[in-house]
Design goal:
Two copies of one chain form a homodimer. Chain A is α/β, with parallel strands linked by helices. In chain A, strand 4, helix 10 and strand 5 form a beta-alpha-beta unit. The first copy, chain A, is globular, with a radius of gyration of 22 Å. The N and C termini of chain A lie far apart (about 55 Å). The interface between A and B is medium-sized, with 23 and 23 residues.
Chain lengths: ~450, ~450
């Protein structure tokens, strides 16, 4: 708000309007959020407003206004000096989801700039910053100017939230966390999009998870949030596409911070589990397409495979690790990553096929081991984690290992073991069709893309 | 909550449960309200919970639990030493509603004890305490022991809220006031009933107003609140009846604190406007019936008329005024009440019939004169006010007085005059049926009463 503008709003009126189901104007939202960020409106009024938003919802215009206000509450990066298109990827969070660590160097190797600002894990889901910090020395707290220098030097950089970016979101999120007002697609959308758009990007690929390990268990909720974020991004002049992807079992086989770095390196070597590899290629295909280096997503995927095969993607990762003060030897020698002192096997009690793996429980088992956080202030043990040997559809005999637990405290390992045993459902007959990895793609650009691909097929 | 009970609840869980439409247990409500009253839960969590209650509602059991918790957050009066039944009346507030000042001495004259704890006016509605304080010297701030002595001496006593009664309500109401969470029938019910039940009464007559001057403009909302309060009172073992009464035009002819005392004395003399007289008799009939001194409401009304005709009701009022340090000479000589310095006439600009009087506007006109409060901290001028000469259905010729304004500041009088002119709707033809004064009666007792009256008719 222009400081010269006389104050014409009252918090109580904005609260009442939303309570009664009215649509707030851009000015009303801007007034409330900015006055709150400045400390001119108390917490108790804003928490009442947040609850009214949770229960009454917001229109698309209100969601865009909230995103815009939060984005402009702080500094937005100006990366216009970089000639490459700036594209980021954001995931709504899952178990074993380490795609960011693959995608940033992979897209950078293709000539797309990836200025990635990420978060930490909370609850049963992991966080990109925690995974990066499993690499000894890796510094996620770069200043904005150093962030820019790394980005210029290698095409990608990965850091944590800075104090300058979207301070309104930080203050609002802290209040939402303690007032039961986190669970609103409108507030989630504004929180994610304000921070991502503050990165100075041209395009954004969203990975919206659905299934037992996702925040949005139901696909309809994931689609709703995805559509909201795509439209909000487009209203703000950005290219945004959202992939609804499966999180009904963990992604890949490794869960736990250092273990996930190992699996990232495997993927960048052209190895690793097929589901993780496919999802990385799909997301990379979109990043390369939106980043303007490939005409189609299919071409983007093929290009990504080549960059993996040639070792260029792994070289880029090694370079970024070096530039951000991490030990690059960990890339070629995983034993240099933090190692848990002990392992414990989880074996199958029956013969049959894996019908399902309760994904949130697996994530919780990792938290119990010390690999995640129950509260924001908890510290994380990078060495502990779980390696899954069986996933949905796999045959298993009695006594065969389902998973290996990497642990530093036996009491925790025993609790995790019980949870893992409970999370595997083994049935006599093999299940029918498996859930697809990519449920659907949302965004205006998808249509353009299909047109291009079809005309390409005809040629 | 028993202080020895280990704390097994978390505010965030109670908030989430209500947000998601769940029913809270008595223990959960008790935990939240008591911990908030003690200062162990911050405002911002409770305001989020309050907004969830406004938008999700409460079951009858939750409403009763909230009422019970608020009632027991402070001291409840023990009036069991008084042999008479204790009966109070509560009105949801209106314009010109001075029935409390008539009813307390009238019911007391019939042998019912009336321990009345009232509030001040806010917004367009007046308040009983402000009216009483228009009587020079009248003290509404008696200690609980003096309140009891006045009650024992004359059968009625009228004071303001004390610090001991329902402190949880006081703290919650202050928060509701600034967070847009006043307008919930469940919260209104718990606030009213907790304070009334803390008076140590046996029975309660509720006067729930509906129409343009009421908080509940729509009759269905008034009925909903009335049913909620009746059921809540009955769950707590009290006899409660609610009359839905008309507030589509001011009650009686006088609005303003000293003026309303004048009209109270008129009614107690057997004079005064018919609508006010009828409503007082109806409410008194119910108080006498529930107070056990009359077998039927009809008998209670007849008994009340006799107590007015004999002067006993007025004597009781004079005695209460004396016992509460007020100047009793004001009863017989209204000139001893505060007098406004000037009067201004509001005349009709056309000939016809009064089709409607916008009741909230008349109340607001009185606030503008200084006779009410826009904010709780405003002081009130007892002398100013409005006398209506024409009410709905009355014939009026051009230039004939509609109302007289009693004022101390001309600029305010001119604004009030304009509002009054706008509030009168004059039409050429006389309107059809008038709105009834009593719309309906709600409460289990009504059924018993009808049975009694019918069997009485048969005899």
């Amino acid at each position: 708000m222009n400081p010269a503008t006389p104050q014409t709003f009252r918090a109580i009126d904005v609260i009442r309007k939303k309570r009664d189901g009215g649509e707030l104007s851009h000015d009303e939202i801007e007034y409330l959020v900015n006055a709150y960020t400045r400390g001119d409106i108390p917490d108790y009024q804003v928490s009442a407003w947040l609850m009214a938003v949770v229960l009454r919802g917001m229109t698309r215009a209100e969601t865009a206004a909230l995103t815009d206000t939060m984005l402009h509450s702080g500094e937005a990066l100006d990366l216009s000096s970089l000639s490459a298109k700036k594209v980021d990827k954001h995931s709504t969070g899952g178990v074993g989801d380490k795609t960011s660590l693959v995608l940033a160097p992979l897209a950078a190797a293709a000539g797309v700039a990836v200025p990635m600002i990420s978060g930490r894990g909370l609850g049963h889901t992991g966080g990109t910053l925690d995974k990066l910090e499993a690499i000894p020395g890796f510094n996620v707290n770069l200043s904005v100017s150093r962030f820019r220098r790394v980005l210029e030097a290698c095409g990608c950089a990965m850091i944590g939230q800075t104090a300058e970016i979207a301070p309104a979101d930080r203050k609002l999120y802290a209040l939402r966390d303690v007032t039961g007002t986190v669970e609103s697609p409108y507030l989630i959308c504004a929180s994610i999009m304000s921070k991502k758009l503050a990165e100075g990007i041209d395009a954004l690929v969203l990975d919206v998870k659905t299934g037992s390990g996702a925040f949005m268990k139901k696909e309809e909720d994931a689609v709703f949030l995805a559509e909201l974020m795509v439209e909000t991004g487009e209203r703000m002049g950005k290219q945004v596409v959202a992939l609804i992807t499966d999180m009904d079992q963990p992604l890949g086989c490794m869960i736990g911070n250092a273990l996930e770095v190992v699996e990232v390196v495997e993927i960048l070597r052209g190895e690793g589990p097929e589901d993780l590899r496919q999802l990385c290629l799909e997301l990379a295909g979109w990043m390369l397409h939106l980043g303007g280096v490939c005409d189609t997503v299919a071409e983007g995927k093929r290009r990504s495979e080549k960059l993996i095969a040639s070792g260029e993607a792994l070289d880029k990762f090694r370079k970024m690790v070096e530039l951000q003060e991490g030990d690059p030897r960990t890339i070629d020698d995983p034993k240099k990553l933090p190692q848990a002192r002990n392992t414990m096997m989880v074996s199958s009690a029956r013969q049959g096929y894996v019908a399902s793996v309760q994904c949130e429980q697996v994530g919780t088992a990792c938290v119990i081991l010390g690999g995640g956080r129950e509260r924001k202030e908890d510290s994380v043990d990078p060495a502990v984690g779980i390696v899954l040997h069986k996933k949905v559809g796999d045959a298993v005999s009695i006594g065969e290992p389902l998973a290996t637990i990497y642990y530093n405290a036996e009491e925790r390992a025993l609790r995790a073991k019980q949870l893992l045993e409970e999370s595997y459902e083994i049935t006599g007959a093999q299940a029918g069709e498996k859930r697809p990895l990519i449920h659907r793609v949302i965004g205006q650009r998808v249509i353009d893309q299909r047109v291009i691909e079809k005309s390409g097929e005809r040629n």
